[in-house]
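Entry type: protein chain
Record version: 2
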Amino acid sequence: MSFKFPLASSSWDKKEYAAMQRVIDSDIFTMGVNVKEFEKQFAKYVGSNYCIMVNSGSSANLLMIASLFYCSNSSLRLERGDEVIVPPVSWSTTYYPLLQYGLKLRFVDIDVETLNYDLDQLEEAVTERTRLIVAVNLLGNPNDYVEINKIIGQKDIILVEDNCEAMGAEFSERKTGTFGLMGSFSTFFSHHISTMEGGLIVTNDEELYHILLSLRAHGWTRDLPKNNYVCGEKSDDPFKESFRFVLPGYNVRPLELSGSIGLEQLKKLPCIIDSRRENARLFVKALDGHPDILIQSEIGKSSWFGFSLVVRPGSPFTREKLLGLLSQRGFETRPIVAGNFINNEVIKYFELKDLPELKNAGYVGSNGLFIGNHHFSMDEAIESLASI
């Protein structure tokens, strides 16, 4: 089905196709020099020491959690049964690695306006059992990291960021994805930049970087520097290191094609973010204070992945009526990420006990939706939206 105002659109032009052709001409398609250069440039863009590219944002989340089980630093190392706090509105693969590594999930409700953590409830939820907090910067909106770090204080709690929807967002003049020990990003088609499929992890911790390098490719030593935190010192004999496995890893390597596209997309990213913010300025101007619709309240400088619309409590409007009107005008719509995730059938595998009410997540899940934002002018779409 074709929509006048789709959720996502391509930001590729002849430069991306030329980059792909150069890879095709080289006849080297697996992870190589283009991926390495993209990692270097992306780390520089966000202001991080290390970056590793993988085949998806979901894989980035998986490796981010897995790496915490193999580090030597006991203050950072997780164990099965440790408690992790998560918001109930996010994508499925925010949660799956936590389940798969035996962590105990504790859901903390969101704020109905920011769509990120309700900070009062987050503070109440933190106990001596809490070892990890996953901050999800939903629809491009940063969390309030000043307040989150106050809540963590001197407690033995690790903070990581699922920043897959918030590339380019900023809080206190710093890029999101860099406030936690690690941060994940997605470069899937519908995200701020696209590399076909792809994801990234950034960190300033060298040991975790080495662990991620090994986990990304079979758990072997081949991609590690000679002196590293995983196996110590590698042999100078490449034959001995060819099939030397030291960690229970995966194969989530990206393609060289994706790395080459990423280099071109990264050059465009500042302009892409600027255009999305200009669209957001017009969107907020048109709908802020609307009697029937709540829009997302910005924290810091959002990169505006999309525009959320939540029917206000007590409004005679319904989401079904809103969906119908938007469809008539040609808007493609989706639920706000996965809505309240605990309402999905898959939750039966999580063995959760004593679930809180999650009132706000439930409300947003039942009464909210989002429409797309883009790297080009959306004047017509916003005018049409405001006239509904």
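Comment: The radius of gyration is 21 Å.
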